[in-house]
Amino acid sequence: MESIYNLVPEPYVEPYKPPMYRSKYDPKAPLTSSTFGLRGTSATVGGGVNEIRKNHTLSSTFGPTSQSITSASNFLKAGSKTRQAPKEASAFARASGKTKPLVPRREDKPVMGLRTSKNFITANAVEAILSVPQMPQSEGVDYVNKEDYGKVPEYLSQVKEEIRRENEMIDEYVRKQLSQDEDAPEEFTEMDEQDRVDLVNKLKTKWDDVNEKYQKICHRTNFESFGDIHFKEGKEAELKKLENDIMMLQRAGSVMVSEDR
Q1: Domain boundary at 47, 64, 81, which?
Q2: What is the rounded distance in angstroms from the CA atom of residue 256 to the CA atom of residue 261?
Q3: Fewest CB atoms less than 10 Å from the CB: which of 28, 97, 158, 233?
Q4: Region (Disordered): which ranges (predicted)?
């Protein structure tokens, strides 16, 4: 909303400026925990190079600063803390009297110019001729002189007896089954002519059904799977069986059927 009072200029008020921050620490004190000024001759803010080096040198150790600083040339060398093993022989070697000779030192010189007049070829031949042959420590078992040599083991006789008894039991069981079958003679009855004609017609109907399925694959020469081959062979076998049954029922004469069926 506009107003005429907005045209009147407002008096300028200077913003409040806080006083400059002054640290309570000395700005000229040497820097702590800093590595500036340790190398070279350039000085850093807060103190001279000598003051910085002196400050860092005194506080660069883990121990108290009152101790003297170790010289750079006096560093820990390899093997200075290790203890040398005693060169004396062990207690076991001293007790048994079997001690190995010491290793020759670096300044020891080997004996030179020693030669032997021994003929090793002749010496070895003489030693081999005069040596006594060593006999075997353990003698082998003489199986020929054993008590049971050439005799049949007892366990084989037991096995043969068990096999004989099992065969007798099987023969006895088969004999009883055959005698029961012979005692009960099988009876046959003549099939009625009308039943034979009906059975032949049903077989022919089934043959037509199987032949219809067979005709769909009989012309194929390349089969994609073994299932198709088995299907074709199965239909051929089924047709052959139906044809044999039809020919048997159409023969002249009566057809005899067992009563058990």
Answers
A1: 64
A2: 11
A3: 97
A4: 79-108
Tens-digit pLDDT profile for residues 72-121:
777 888 888 887 766 555 665 666 666 777 888 888 888 888 888 899 99
In total, the chain counts a number of residues equal to: 261
| Token code pair at residue 221 | 């020469």
Top mean pLDDT of 66-70, 79-83, 179-183 is at 79-83
DSSP codes joined into one string, 80-134: SSPPPPP-SPPHHHHHHT--PPPPPPTT-----S------HHHHHHHHHHHSPPP
Evaluate whether 239 touches 206 at the Cβ level (below 8 Å). Answer: no
Amino acid at 88: E
Domain for residue 83, yes or no?
Answer: no
d(CA 69, CA 184): 125
Q: Does the residue 114 lie in any domain?
A: no
The residue among 29, 45, 64 that closes a domain is 64
Tokens matching residue 106: 């670096």
Q: For residue 117, what are its two tokens?
A: 């007049």
How far is Cα 249 from Cα 220, in angstroms, rounded to an integer?
A: 33
In this structure, what are the phi and psi dihedrals at residue 175, rounded to the nearest 5 degrees?
Answer: -65, -40
179 has a pLDDT exceeding 90: no
Q: Is residue 219 part of a domain?
A: yes
In a domain, 116, yes or no: no
CA of residue 127 relative to chain centroid, distance: 57
Tell me the residue range of the domain where 232 lies.
188-258
Tokens of 157: 């006789």
Rounded to whole angstroms, the Cα distance separating 150 from 154 reads 12
Under 8 Å between Cβ of 213 and 219: no
Q: Which structure tokens are listed for 107?
A: 């300044």
